[in-house]
């Protein structure tokens, strides 16, 4: 590998970075391997340093060392200012640096978390970033500073790719709209205040692809601005069934990912009336991932039927269950490539349809059962897993684990291991699974936390302000 040219090594390292980011539950372990690459030889180090520093916060090992490297890039005048204001020690000496690390920084997500909470210091460091970097993503804290007035802002911000619109001051977005044309990933926090700056910013972009809508606000101007991007939006998340967006749904023909969460009571039909009206007959031939919350399975079924067999992940939470059987049927009839799926065993005849899923969906990796399984189905479900579970299946999330018969579970675990299947990963949200495995000394089973170990294998992540369910 030492004889490979620089470009090939770069692409290998970039793939290694991508692999590390995708494997969230093993992120720390894989991250160490990235640092070992720095020690192989000079060429490897020169290639890996820009990659690691492109997203500096993500790969920090020692915050104090990282901070010292950052301020060692500051000008002598900035260092003098910080000393005069007693922000850094009077005897501070800048480190001798092997690289201009700042110039490699692109994604500044959460960089403020490693900086002391001092406005003078942050201003000097943000000036440095603006003057040296071609920024793809701003730190959330940077939007509270007059970064447009800093030297080099027009160039530094012109390639901005990702933005979180969560402040009320609209002048910031007006200013940004004059510079940015390349934002593709946009987080918008809605509320009942003036949104004119955000509207202008949306209108000025070439192609918005990833859209996250937080909160509830009937702002037609936002929807009208987004209409320009209906052909480019492939990823949509909304935390409410927000009616002003719904007229866009039939036009979002290139959507690959839909997640809509709803905090309203499922018996209150008003918030989803327009969603049903516009989404029921829309065709999403490229849709791969569907996540819906507190919604009728009738609507879910209709959406799945209007896809083109590309769905590989379906996550449903707290629906109405009247059509649980028909929902299970829809999976094996319309989702031949399904890998991750919520299934229901809380209504009559649902187990028979799960059997068909196992037979016809041979790419299935994980099943999610978030509701109570009918008592008459519990032992039969365990038997079905042993007899017909597809070979790739190894991840199972079962809520209400405590309701299973203990002897049936012990027999199931023993049979699973004897069948030579993949090592079973059993996901849970409560300690009952852990206690059972420990008490009965179950071997060959890996217990996983439903949240910490990322059952759903999320591909696209947002900062801490965006929480998953």
Which helices and strands, and how do they pair?
Blueprint: H1 6-22, H2 27-36, H3 42-53, H4 63-71, H5 76-84, H6 119-132, H7 153-156, E1 162-165, H8 171-177, E2 185-189, H9 196-204, E3 210-214, H10 220-226, E4 235-238, E5 257-260, H11 270-279, E6 289-293, H12 297-305, E7 313-317, H13 324-334, E8 340-342, H14 350-360, E9 366-369, H15 378-388, E10 395-398, H16 406-418, E11 424-428, H17 432-439, E12 445-449
Parallel strand pairs: 1-2, 2-3, 3-4, 4-5, 5-6, 6-7, 7-8, 8-9, 9-10, 10-11, 11-12
Helix pairs in contact: 1-2, 1-3, 8-9, 9-10, 12-13, 13-14, 14-15, 15-16
Structure, described:
It is a single chain. The chain is an alpha/beta fold and 469 residues long. The chain has a domain of 113 residues. The protein has 17 helices and 12 strands. It has a 12-stranded parallel sheet, with helices on one face. Strand 11, helix 17 and strand 12 form a beta-alpha-beta unit. Helix 9 runs parallel beside helix 10 and helix 14 packs parallel to helix 15. It is globular, with a radius of gyration of 26 Å. The C terminus is likely disordered. This is F-box domain-containing protein. It comes from Rhizophagus irregularis (strain DAOM 181602 / DAOM 197198 / MUCL 43194) (Arbuscular mycorrhizal fungus).
Write down the overall geometry: globular
Radius of gyration: 26 Å
Mean pLDDT: 86
Strands ordered across the widest β-sheet: 1-2-3-4-5-6-7-8-9-10-11-12
Q: Please tally the β strands and state the result.
A: 12
Roughly what fraction of the amino acids lie in strands? Answer: 5-15%
Instruction: Tell me the series of helices and strands, N- to C-terminal.
Output: HHHHHHHEHEHEHEEHEHEHEHEHEHEHE
Protein name: F-box domain-containing protein
Organism: Rhizophagus irregularis (strain DAOM 181602 / DAOM 197198 / MUCL 43194)
